[in-house]
Amino acid sequence: MTTYIIRRLLLMIPTILGITIMVFAISRVAPGDPVSLSMGPGGQMDARRAADVRKARMALYGLDKPIHVQYGIWLKRVAKLDFGDSIKHHRPVIELIKERLPITLTLNLISIVIIYSISIPLGIFTAVRQGKFSDRASSVILFMLWSLPSMWVGQMLIGYFCGPTFKNWFPPAGLSSNFADSLPFFPWLGDRLWHLALPVLCLSYSGFAYLTKQVRAGMLDNLRADYIRTARAKGLGSWTVTFKHAFRNSVIPVITIMATLLPAMIGGSVIIESIFSIPGMGRLAFEAITTRDYNVVMAVATIAGVLNLAGLLIADITYAIADPRITFESLE
What DSSP string describes 117-181? Predict the structure, then answer.
């Protein structure tokens, strides 16, 4: 196991290097000029002074050097977890990430707990009751949830639940109320959960629908297997057959989805955090893209790539733990 983990970690090095090359190249070929955008609209200074200011800012951020030199400088900084300075915020990018990342992780981890807490029991229930009304009804509802775009759902939730026109039940934006800092812990926690309710719902429903269908499909494949019929013929109870045998052998797709769900949801947070004005990584990435803040864009994309690689490594290790028939040699 240790040898396999070391090999995978060594293999991740060239993969991460490839990710940095792609991220850097895409950021540079994107249209727009971050220095011009950071200078604001023209007309406030003459053309000669504007050119001097532009030249000075290009030199300040290293944008006046050749592309390969810029990449080399940036890669050396990334190796030290130094992503440079934000062109828009005039602050180190790592400081912005430290401020925003806990918010995004909190939002996504709550969503993941909700997704797995509901989808696994529901997937097992619908598989056991295949063909019944409850199975058909849940399939229709899950298909509808999977089809709804999160941007549209977020806007509809704000329009219906966050305004005086219909139901003014939830706040439309932000993480907490203006007076939240003066509250004791539990009232503060309640206020925070009140603000997170709709964003978490937007992040959860599509993943919940997808995972439920995957659990159901895996359970159906195993419930039809010969070893399940043998277990029932031996007189084993329905609970033992369903959970100890069928579900245990259906857990591989669940592990696969778990490995990629968090990085995917962090990517989806770009839309949700922008809609609900949540100051997390997603909103930071959206603002960086619109203002061509190269260093922030590259930092967020690189971190997302590393999270994907880490998730795949954890999934491979969990495979062997969940199913003894899988060996580390077979994963290579």
Answer: HHHHHHHHHHHHTTTSHHHHHHHHHHHHHHHS-HHHHHHHHHHHHBSTTS-B-S-SSSSS-TTGG
